[in-house]
Amino acid sequence: MANEPAGRPPWRTLLDEAASLRDLHGDSRVWELSSHHRDGRPPRLFLDPCGASVASMREWASLRCRLAGQQGRHWSSAPRSLMVSGLVQTGKTYTLNEVLPAVLAEALRAQPPDHPLAAMAVLRLNCLSLKLRAGAEGLLFSLLAEMMGWAEDARVPAPVLVLVDELQALLQPTTMNGRPDGTELDAAGGAYLRDGLLRQLLVAGPRHVLLALTGSGMAAVWGALAAMPVGGAAPLHCVRVVNLPSSSPPDLMLRLLEHSLPLWGLEAGDGGDVGGGIKAELMAWSGGSPALCTALAEGWISSGGGGGGGGPLAAYAPHFLRDELHAEVEVAWARSLAHLTNPQRGALLDLCCPELGACADDIADTGLWRFLQPHLTATAATAAAQDGGGSGGYFYLGDASQRQLLRTAIARYAGQLQRTGGWAGGLDSLEAGGLTLAQLDWGWQLLRLGEVAKHLQGATGGGGGGGAGADLSANMVLGVTEFTAMLEARAG
Q1: Do 103 and 21 form a contact (C-beta atoms < 8 A)?
Q2: Sign of the CA dihedral with 258 first, then 262, 265, and 268 last
Q3: Is residue 332 a part of any domain in this protein?
Q4: Are 47 and 185 found together in one domain?
Q5: Other Cβ atoms within 10 Å of 373 Cβ, number
Q6: Residue 387: CB atoms within 10 Å
Q7: Same domain for 146 and 284?
Q8: For residue 55, with 0-12 CB atoms within 10 Å meaning exposed, 13-18 middle and 19 or more buried, which class applies?
Q9: What is the pLDDT of residues 398-444, one digit of tens each?
């Protein structure tokens, strides 16, 4: 471009478009992202409850900047790629597209002007935009066409930061085979893309290409990493992982809402239904998830809520969450667990039981266990044993909303995949009962407790129930028997 300033590359660089990052309160838990360019976007917030997500991204960015400046040296073990991992509605896409570029730009601004990565460009790929229903061959051609478009439109140089979203779609190509919905999985083609394409990029990709990945179905992505052939370098160890927490504590959620309410046109002093009341409702319905809270609030306002002539939030939220989360659960769990057997999926449900939990041996898929580990809490018995110097043990999903979402994907007794609202107060109950996910989780805990109590009452002859297990199905009695045997085995 003839009218470009001297020394300026003819493409928009990461430093041109990435936001600046600021620790808003000095505790590394609330970060403000402010755009330098005039795109009309107000400052955004990123909640980092443990102060670990931004720190991990900073370490990776610093490492890549340092190694890029060491010409002639080869560091095969240093992770070129970064993966943003998390459960349902944890802000993975926002972190990938907004926070990570801001962190990397911050590291580059601290480098000399002639640093090898100074002119880095940013490329974005959402794998859902590819041709997914023509098997692996059609998907690969679609990917190549997308890459050719990058080269033609942006005159893409080296180096580049490639942000890949919805990665699970790349690993799950489908074929038509006479089925109009194109839902028959091309397993062999998916394995080829996994081992022949993605593994090569992760383990031996070009040094000038930095790759950042995420997706809605991270269980499938982790499973793919674990299934890749090692061949001298285990892909699981060639990626820097940023684990996003499932929820943020109330004090951080309040900071987010105090920042966001004016942007949504909901001032705290506008009336009784706004401010404190709306804050409490949004926090309850979102279960402490900043991503879900933002999506819910913006959807409600777009539908006319908050003074726009629409209905109250309590009437809108159940329908919104049911529709939003149904699709999320389908991708995050139903498709990602399709390769497991019914008993294996049934064992996975023990992660939804805080008093029981599951151990690593119960989960057949190594990648799936690695994915879940950051989100697990030790059961009371395991915590006591660990205090005494023990190791291993049993764990459960620590977030109530995530427990309920997993339950909706797997049938309670048979371990089969469910593609409806689910059992024991599934997503359909959001609309039917007006209950939050956390309340549905409590309902399930009470249901199981009641079943055990009823069975034990019948076993002692009390309550006029007609004997042990009266009014309980054979499967429910079997579950109680196994439950009792498991508790006795762990106690002994």
Answers
A1: yes
A2: positive
A3: no
A4: yes
A5: 12
A6: 9
A7: no
A8: middle
A9: 999 999 999 888 887 778 887 644 444 456 655 556 788 888 888 88
